[in-house]
Fold this sequence. Notes:
single chain; alpha/beta; CATH 2.40.50.140
Amino acid sequence: MEENELKGIKGFVRKYKKPLMIIFIIYLVFINLFFFSAVFGFNPMSSDAAEKGAVKTSPTVVKETATPKPTSTPRPTKTPRPTSTPRPTLSAEQIQETKVAKTQEVIDAINDLKESSKEVEYRDFVTYTQKYIDEKEMIHIWGRVFNINSDQELQIWISNSSEAVYILSVKPYEGIYEGDIIDAWGLATDIHCGTNAYGGEVCQPLFGAMIIEKR
């Protein structure tokens, strides 16, 4: 009976030798751990111990890159203003020559206007005034002054007749008086109507004079 028990124990040891050894080693490890914990106050299972045992590494410092400052925009340079060209100065003789030339130009223009104006028969002009208004043609009339309203308005007896014409001058005149005989060059513009001394309506041609000259 004893031999059978011994054989059984030996067989059990052979079969479970390795697992028993592993369990025994683990047992020794735990015994040592608890021993160190009791003597040195070191708990190998705590996170602090793990941190103490761990190799401390210094944190990596990442340097911030400096943000580049915006470059200042250069101010536009002022464009120099062009210098004004000095006007040429004229001598007194040159000024006089210029005046004479301009005067001659005016005289030539007046003469051209006179030459281009049409002579009219006064009875036709007074009777058919609208025809001359529609034609818009430069004409020449003359007559004796019998009324002056201003330095730009007067009335004449056309061709020294008993037919009246109302004249409007484009520019003021002077030195003309009632009874003077004048020449006028211009256009028939309208028919002027008014009231006479007896209350009746009187109509007469309205003449726009470009030029008025006293004979």
